[in-house]
Specification:
Layout lengths: L6 E5 L4 H11 L5 E5 L11 H17 L4 E4 L2 H6 L1 H12 L4 E3 L2 H7 L8 E6 L1 H6 L1 H9 L4 E6 L3 H6 L9 H14 L5 E4 L8 H6 L6 E3 L2 H14 L1 H4 L8 E5 L3 H12 L5 E3 L4
Parallel strand pairs: 1-2, 1-3, 2-9, 3-4, 5-6, 5-7, 7-8, 9-10
Helix pairs in contact: 1-11, 5-7
The protein binds D-glutamic acid (DGL).
Length: 275
């Protein structure tokens, strides 16, 4: 019988699709299940405890669907829930399962993208307040200064497809001004929210042309390639029939309509029923 296990890809909603797209580009043959917790998104302003509970519930659901490996394609969940799941849940309940996030792979390579050794991080309040990026980047690049800006209006603008309109200018400009006020010499902006790649054309209207604007899809995909090479015992568990399924805890019709904006092609999702 062929192996039907999949790699699980999780986000609070749509943003993880930007990462999923890059993963599929690098690793098209594996089976995947994408889950967006749209019914409870956005996660950006929820407490640690709530993001942990929601993320764990979704991860356990993906495990139950036959995903021995789950990628948290969400900075907020990676910042607030990943460590607790890795340290306090997996060893006791699921010793053969693994959950990986997006923060560490980004921190590992980000030093290569700045000459002024100064990086601006844009993210949700949850990601910024967790201080995960300054802490992780310091481990790999102690010489790099990290300034952060929380951008709570960007996810709602993007999810409502208003992010490229003139109405978005006010918030984009405000967030960039606040970032540059903290570090006028920064030369790399990390989009530390998987929704934000969609707003790059608008950011570029307000940025000098030589500014590096870094999104995470390709970084996370390449780190997954390395992970699977280094962990053949996990790699062998994943089926390779190129099967992709999409689930949302919200309304599948709404999800399918908006998801194509993030994924670049039509999606047919099914409902994941929250217990
Ligand atoms: N896409 C999520 C992230 O990368 C944020 C969206 C949300 O606030 O739920 O942080």
């Amino acid at each position: 019988m062929s192996n039907t296990n999949s790699i699980g890809v999780f986000d609070s909603g749509y943003g993880g699709l930007t990462v999923f797209k890059s993963i599929i580009k690098e690793l098209p043959d594996y089976n995947y299940i994408y889950l967006g917790d749209n019914a409870r998104a956005p996660y950006g302003d929820h407490s640690f405890e709530i993001v942990y509970q929601y993320t764990l519930q979704c991860v356990e659901w993906l495990f139950a669907q036959g995903c021995p490996l789950v990628i948290l394609a969400c900075n907020t969940a990676s910042a607030k829930a990943l460590r607790s799941i890795q340290q306090h849940v997996l060893p006791f309940k699921y010793p053969d399962h693994r959950v990986l996030g997006v923060i560490r792979p980004t921190a590992e390579v980000i030093g290569a993208y700045t000459q002024s050794r100064t990086i601006g991080v844009m993210g949700t309040r949850g990601t910024v307040n967790s201080e995960s990026y300054p802490i992780e980047i310091k481990k790999f690049f102690p010489d790099v200064k990290v300034v952060q800006q929380s951008c709570p209006m960007l996810v709602p603008l993007i999810e409502n497809n208003e992010h490229l309109t003139s109405g978005a200018n006010h918030f984009v400009k405000k967030y960039l001004d606040e970032l540059f006020l903290q570090a006028p010499n920064l030369d790399c902006i990390l989009l530390a929210c998987t929704h934000y790649p969609l707003i790059i054309p608008k950011l570029q209207q307000f940025l000098p042309t030589n500014m590096q604007v870094l999104s995470q899809g390709a970084i996370v995909a390449s780190s997954l390639v390395t992970y699977l090479k280094n962990h053949p015992e996990m790699e062998r568990k994943i089926g390779r029939t190129g099967y992709k399924q999409f689930f949302t805890s919200g309304d599948p019709e709404v999800f399918d309509n908006r998801a194509s904006l993030f994924f670049g092609e039509n999606i047919h999702s099914k409902q994941m029923k929250l217990q």
